[in-house]
Structures are given as C-alpha cells and as structure tokens.
Amino acid sequence: MGRGVMLMSGGIDSPVALYYLLRQGHEVVAVHMDNRPFTDDSPLEKVVDHLTILRERFHQPIPLYVVPHGSTQVTLMRSTDRHVGCILCRRFMWRSAERIALRENATFLITGEALGQVASQTLSNMRSATQAVGLPIVRPLVGLDKQEIEAVAKEIGTYGISTRPGVCCQAVPDRPATRSRLLSILEEEARVDAEAILDDCVRRATVM
Amino acid sequence: MTTDDRTPRTGAPVRYRALRLCSNGGGFEAVPDRRAALDLPRFRRTLEASGIPVLDARVMLIVRLPLEVTISQGGRFLFKTRDPERAREAFVQLAGLLGLDDRLAPPPGG
C-alpha cells in the first residue's frame, strides 16, 4: 500500500476521505494549513480531534504537519486580484502538501474535495489549483453527495467535531471566481514570490 | 464621521443594527445597514496611533484588542469571541476610536 499526504481542514469531508484511505490500508501523513488570523483556533482543534479518533480506530500514528498559511493569505490579498484568491490559496496549499510529501517519501496527495459543494469547487478551478503540483491527487469523495458523506462522518464519529462552532475563513472574497483561466491565474501568481513564500511556510511548519 | 465612512450610494452615515452570531457560530459580527466603503488606511493609522496592533491585508484589517477583530472594507466587523458582551465592548471601543456611531441599533422588531 502507498503513503500519501492528506490536506485536513477540520470540515466534514476531510476526515471521511482519510477514513476511506486508511480503511484501504494506506499510510497517511496529515497536513493542516493554519489560516489564522483569518480563522480562529477551531479548525486546528477539530483536525487534532479528528486525528485522535482515526488514529485509535486504525492504530496508525498519522503525523500532523501544521503549516502557517495566514502570512501567505496576507501576501496574496495585498498583491493579487481578490476574485481568484481562493484558487491561489489552494495552489499554495497543494504545493506545501507536495513539499511535505517529498520530505515524507509519500507518492500521492489526498483531498476531501467533491465537485460543486462550494462556489469555488468547479472543474476549471480544480484544474487551475492542481496544476501547481506534479504528484497524483486522490479524491475519495468525488462521487458522493453531501448526505452520503455526512452519514459516514456520523458513523465514524467525526461529524460532531466538524460541526462545532468556528469562524469561517475571512479571506474568502465576496464573489469568488467560479470559472478560471489557467493563464490568468499564473499571471496573478507571478505578482508574488511563490518559492520564497513556500520556503518560509514549510520551514515554519510544526509536527504534532 | 467622515465622508469616507459613508455609503457611496446615498452618502448617509453607516449604522450598525446589532451584533449577530456569524454563520458558523464562532464569533459575533456587526453588519452595517448598507454596504459601506470604510477608509481602512485611516482606521489603521488611528488604531496604531492608539497603540493597538493592526495587521493590514489591504481589503481588511485584523485588530488585536487583545480580542481579535476583523474589519472589512465593506463595513463588517467580526469579533472572534462567543461572548456577546465582550463583542459589544470591543465594538464600542473601536467605534469610539474610529469616530463611528457606537450605539448599536436594536435589531428589527427588537
């Protein structure tokens, strides 16, 4: 079985996606992109609690990398078009995860994304975001609807954690782009020093 | 209140009706009665002159009172606390510093 890196947000979907991978016998390293001060402490607390449940269930250590992402958001907000902020944000998340994958000898990335659950989860946006990385991306939930995902979350005991109160990401623009052109995304991204941002974030990541 | 803190459409002063729980229940927000165009650079200067740390993200300020407050360009204040009284106190403090009306109007029907 393979070793993958999973992006964990604290929401309903990511622990369910992780559950499916662990059930198949894969080894997983978790990554949480810490969006403070654009959120509060709750997403990280939820991820820690999700992992406690899944570690016990599957008897796997599941290391958790916490990557500071708030400073990246500030740089993007100051320098790039707000409408594509969510796509640029995702590109940095994916690249951070990929760097950790290389460090951890992992060969694929995992996400709890499904199509169309939020405005920014469109095929063109996913393509624009994932073009940033070379490792294959596994999306265990892509064919499930929200009710199915919630049913599994309740069954495995993560739903109540995911739905605890918390502050939504304040960096989300009022009108996020739903259809993006890769070329214009790359032009926007060129306004910032992506390599320096990534170097800094991954260097400051902590392991829990 | 300066003209910068008035809604562009009508020129009327910004009013805040009430504090309400934000959508995920993690904080309280004060929302203006119509879309505003707050002068964030002026707010930043004023707050920093008062010794309050401010993170400037261009379209929003993140203020540490030490309670953390996000002030959006469109006029929304988000208070990262689940205690409505702490949120109200923070709103009054900020409104006083920034020259905004600090009387939260009662919610409709309230």
Distance between the termini of chain A: 24 Å
**Mean pLDDT metric of chain B:** 84
Largest β-sheet summary of chain A: 6 strands, mixed
The biggest beta sheet of chain B is recorded as: 6 strands, antiparallel
The geometry of chain B reads as globular
- Total count of strands of chain A: 6
Q: Which labels suit this protein?
A:
heterodimer, A: 208 residues, alpha/beta, Rossmann fold, 6-stranded mixed β-sheet, 9 helices, 6 strands, 47% helix, B: 110 residues, alpha+beta, 6-stranded antiparallel β-sheet, 25% strand, globular
Write up this protein.
The complex is a heterodimer of chains A (208) and B (110). With 208 residues, chain A is an alpha/beta fold. Chain A has a single domain, classed as HUPs (Rossmann fold), CATH 3.40.50. Chain A is built from nine helices and six strands; from the N terminus they run E-H-E-H-E-H-H-E-H-E-H-H-H-H-E. Chain A has a six-stranded mixed beta sheet with strand order 5-4-1-2-3-6, sandwiched between helices. Chain A is globular and about 45 Å long. The two termini of chain A are 24 Å apart. The model of chain A has no long low-confidence stretch (mean pLDDT 93). Chain B contains two helices and six strands, in the order ββαββββα. Chains A and B meet through helix 3 of A and strand 5 of B.
